[in-house]
Amino acid sequence: MAERIQLSIALCRIAFYTCFRKLCCKGPRIPRPEYDVVCIGLSGAGKTSLIRRLCREGLDEIVPTQGFSIKAVAFPNAVLNVKELGGADNIKKHWSRYYQGSQGVVFVLDSTVSDEKMEACRSELLLALQHPQLCTLPFLILANHQDSPAARSVPEIKKYFELEPRAKGKRWILEGSSINNMEAVREGFSELISLMEDKEL
Predict the structure, then answer these.
(1) Beta carbons within 10 angstroms of residue 169's beta carbon
(2) What are the tens digits of pLDDT across the range 25-71?
(3) pLDDT in tens, 80-101
(4) For residue 69, what is the enclosing H or E element?
(5) What are the backbone dihedrals phi and psi of residue 30, each rounded to the nearest 5 degrees, phi first?
């Protein structure tokens, strides 16, 4: 009987000590790495909405980005400092001024636009892929508004943009996206983080 009591006391002490260590003796948290990412795309592609949703912010009173905005987007294994550049013609011509220091690129396109605007999207993406400050960086290409019946599918966009031959040797991801399926958007950003981590190794 006495042995059982002693065993019970010993087990209680171990459990108490374990709980105490977990609650009170935590070491300093390992800081998550930070990456600077530039987000580009034509006006109306949905860049602001996607980034706001990633930050768990509301979508009220969204207006086209004038110049640029920066938001820190936290993921379990990294923090992305996302610099979103406005997509209007008078801003687009100055994009390259904001490329310096970027470690990754997010290109957002509207999957529902006309053939003419889709051709403009393709031209801008190919220019970015070839730009001296971006050409070695990983790209996350988001084909946005995939929840619309008018949206081109991801395989259609991949073929139309001729990504296989034109982006050969580069690191890129093409994902469908919409603000109603943020899980897929987060997965795309997680893949981009993995590519940036690989670059550091």
Answers:
(1) 5
(2) 454 556 789 999 999 999 999 999 999 999 888 777 666 677 788 99
(3) 999 999 988 888 889 999 999 9
(4) strand 68-75
(5) -75, 120
